[in-house]
UniProtKB/TrEMBL annotation:
Protein family (similarity comment): Belongs to the autoinducer-2 exporter (AI-2E) (TC 2.A.86) family.
Organism the protein comes from: Luteimonas chenhongjianii
GO biological process: transmembrane transport
Record lineage: Bacteria, Pseudomonadati, Pseudomonadota, Gammaproteobacteria, Lysobacterales
Protein name: AI-2E family transporter
Coiled coil: none
Residue spans of biased composition, Pro residues class: 1-18
Length: 373
């Protein structure tokens, strides 16, 4: 019995065609949109949990360069983390005590000062008000419908009760941020190593470890550098206010406001400019020989300092690697501000920088990093 054999192709026969590879399945557009909406909903709904974690990671990144410096001096990580955290809390507490009095005074006197400024502002906006009244009168004259009686409803203010209810929640959030910051500084490195150890082969573990170490160093450097620049900006502005005749406590208050607002590009300086203009009208009106321009001087100095910082100091210190497209920054500020309010505005830039650094280090995603620049 003969066994059938497959025919042997001749030597000059063409090579067999490669087997076509099945295309990689891609998610549909509807699925991507639904996933994005689900993620945004989770970020908004779980902000009570997410925000303390992000703030703790932010503060831990600020303290990591100090921890590395103390490690070179053979200081244990637990002790160095405790020392950095205690120094940070002590500095924040002392600054808060210094600013509590001026802030309370400004909050109490703001309505009175605004009422005093009302006649001047009314005189400045008188043409606009007259035009609005004329348009309203014309609209009423052209209406055929009878005017309806407007019923006034008095709403009781329960702000005191809301404050009492919100205070324990705020204290719990602050305590959570402090504890998470300490644990991130102490155990964050071990958690990172344990996560890398789960990778299958040694080469991939080494590559991932090098990438994460590089990203962590660059992000820590960025966060610490931006914090120092903003602090110096606030200190310089406070010094200028003291030179102009403002008290030291009031100057520290406005310097702190300037430093915090500078963490939110574009939006923060715009709010700061309006606040400095209002502060100038309240504090410096009639104090200088040229009383007409005296209220505008703090806002002008603030704008000058911010321009120098934004156009020269920060680009020189950080370089092009940390640069983010202004359009991307605006979109990020809108998104995170909508999700998390003021804290979202402060965290938007560090989060976008983190995303850019990660994309630049991961193979195949460098194009997305260039898109953000």
């Amino acid at each position: 019995m003969s066994i059938p054999t497959s025919p042997v192709p001749p030597d000059d026969a063409p090579p067999p065609a490669d087997t076509p590879v099945a295309p990689r399945p891609r998610a549909s557009t509807a699925l991507i949109i639904l996933t994005t909406l689900a993620v945004l909903s989770i970020l908004w709904a779980a902000q009570t949990v997410i925000l303390p974690v992000l703030l703790a990671m932010f503060f831990a990144l600020v303290g990591n360069p100090v921890l590395r410096a103390l490690r070179r001096l053979w200081v244990p990580r637990f002790v160095s983390a405790l020392l950095v955290l205690c120094l940070g809390l002590a500095g924040a507490g002392m600054l808060g005590l210094q600013l509590y009095g001026p802030a309370s005074e400004w909050v109490q006197q703001a309505p009175k000062q605004l009422r005093a400024l009302a006649p001047r502002l009314k005189a400045m906006t008188q043409p606009v008000h007259q035009a609005s009244q004329a348009a309203e009168s014309f609209a009423r004259a052209t209406e055929d419908r009878p005017q309806r009686r407007v019923q006034l409803v008095q709403i009781q203010d329960n702000s005191s009760w809301r404050t009492i209810v919100a205070t324990p929640k705020m204290l719990a959030s602050v305590l959570a941020v402090v504890l998470l910051t300490f644990f991130f500084m102490v155990y964050g490195e071990n958690l990172q190593k344990n996560a890398i150890a789960m990778l299958p082969d040694r080469q991939r573990r080494k590559l991932t470890f090098d990438i994460m170490q590089s990203i962590e160093r660059e992000i820590s450097r960025y966060v610490l550098t931006i914090s120092i620049i903003n602090t110096l900006l606030g200190a310089v502005f406070a010094g200028v206010l003291v030179w102009m005749g403002l008290t030291l406590q009031d100057a520290l208050l406005w310097g702190t406001v300037v430093a915090l607002l500078n963490f939110a590009p574009y939006v923060g300086p715009l709010i700061g400019l309006l606040l400095m203009l209002l502060m100038g009208f309240v504090s410096f009106e009639g104090t200088w020989p040229n009383a007409t321009w005296a209220p505008v001087i703090p806002a002008a100095i603030y704008l000058l300092l911010h321009t120098i910082e934004g156009q020269f100091v920060t680009p020189i210190v950080l370089g092009r690697r940390m640069a983010i497209s202004p359009l991307v920054l605006i979109l990020a500020l809108m998104l995170f501000g909508w999700l998390w309010g003021i804290i979202g505005l402060l965290l938007a830039v560090p989060l976008i920088v983190c995303v850019k650094l990660v994309l630049a280090r991961v193979e195949g995603l460098e194009g997305w990093a260039r898109l953000l620049a």
